[in-house]
Amino acid sequence: MAYRAVLANRDIRCEGYTMTDHGVELYDEEETFLAFVPYEHLHSLLDEEATTEPDPAIL
């Protein structure tokens, strides 16, 4: 399943993530580390299904 980490100035698409004490570690489909996002910079973490629904609550 694909995910999207939403930050203030960009989005990062990833295939997996791990929540740590201080933030989220993002990984690609081969489980290669992509980025670490501290919780204070993370607006939301959405799965692809959430972005395909026409629900205004996620805008």
Description:
By secondary structure, this protein is mainly beta. The chain has one domain. It has one helix at residues 48-52, and strands at 3-7, 11-14, 16-19, 23-27, 33-38, 42-47. The chain has a 3-stranded antiparallel beta sheet with strand order 2-1-6. A hairpin with a 3-residue loop joins β3 and β4. The mean pLDDT is 88.
Describe, in short, the structure shown:
With 59 residues, the protein is mainly beta. 8% of the residues lie in helices and 51% in strands. The protein has one domain (3-58).
Sketch the major β-sheet.
3 strands, antiparallel
Q: How would you describe the shape?
A: globular
Number of domains: 1
Please state the CA-atom Rg, rounded to the nearest Å. Answer: 11 Å
Q: Within the largest sheet, what's the order of strands?
A: 2-1-6
Unreliable spans are: none
Order of helices and strands: EEEEEEH
Residue-averaged pLDDT: 88
Percent strand: over 45%
**Helix fraction by DSSP (H/I, runs of at least 4):** under 10%
Give the termini distance in whole angstroms. 21 Å
Number of strands: 6
Please give the count of helices: 1
* Class per helix and strand makeup: mainly beta
Supply database-style keywords.
59 residues, mainly beta, three-stranded antiparallel β-sheet
Topology:
Layout: E1 3-7, E2 11-14, E3 16-19, E4 23-27, E5 33-38, E6 42-47, H1 48-52
